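Appendix B.2, paired examples.
Example (i):
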Amino acid sequence: IYDRIIELKEDIVHLIALKRDYPDSYTMFEFNLVKFRLEQELFELAEYKEYENNPVFYFHAFFPLDHSFTLRSFTSIDKRIEIITTFLTNIPAYLEYPRQNLAKSLPDIKLNFAISALSGYINFIQNDLISFINQSSNKDLLAKSIAATTLAVNSLTSFKNELVSDYLPQAHQQYALGQSMYLQLLKKSEDVS
């Protein structure tokens, strides 16, 4: 995350150095859009820091399981299952990021939502994703995929249990952003000033 913050700052400086008179409003719009997105990501990582106080921040990486790989037929089922298997195999390593970055005391509303969301992901993998994987007739692929789903479910369940046993007892009810942060959030994420 800290490397990405440095990279974003460098990108913004580089982008501003490129700024000149643009031939049309569309080109200027594109420039401003790129600048806005870079500044938005920088704000989210350097100031808003959801990665420290919201476990759900890390779950966005799981969305492609449902929305891309299972619902869209961009390649064969077996190829999509291979991608899913690789994805699932990497979940244990991925879950080390929230373990490293999350504060020990989290807002209870965000924590409870994360626990509920993890239950949903686990259920999705155990039921819907397994049903999708079982469409393959490749026995080797099926064996690897079933092992990967078991690994992923065990890792997600372990992480969920950590949230319940280690974080929930220390949860707090201080989740209000405050006026200053809220105004910054509106400006940086919605371009409202």
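Example (ii):
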Amino acid sequence: ITSIKYNNIVVIKYLVTFYYDNIIHLSYKLISYMMCSNNNDDLFFYLVQNDKITINDNFLINCIKKEYNDLFIFSYEKIDFNEYKYKNYLPYIYKNNNIELFNYILKNIPNINFQFIIHDMIKYNDNMFSFISLLLNKYFDEIPKESLFIKLCIKNKIEHTIIKHLVDNDYKCTEEDNNYFIKNISKKINTT
């Protein structure tokens, strides 16, 4: 108990590896302390790999916060995940600017709802430039034209030529988007 309380990671790793059955009653406390310290992904891998830990939303969210991307992916693939569950993790992925996990979700979740992704991204005031760039570069053909992708691009100050390209390709444009386009983009295009 003392090694857990003082977060002596060497002793904790030893106990978990060789005496887990004897300390299982302390597993909640152990995992809480481990999540508070750094560089424990190897121990978490051991616990997940040997089914000694319950993989739940809280665990996966902590993996995102700690930037344990490989552990998140390994754990996520190990559980019987609901294809809509990824929506719970997006806010944390955005907040931590974790492009790697964003790409993983887009690439590996079957029938992902790109309309939802775009709509969800609009809610965030933080800079979404990297996420939008990934969508443009790797998933452009997946973005529904009826989504509010132009609005998302305008909000995040994406280059005007890209916004013009979206308009020219019949992506949904709200009245507010049209006004922005007329005031800002048309002038720049006409002057060049």
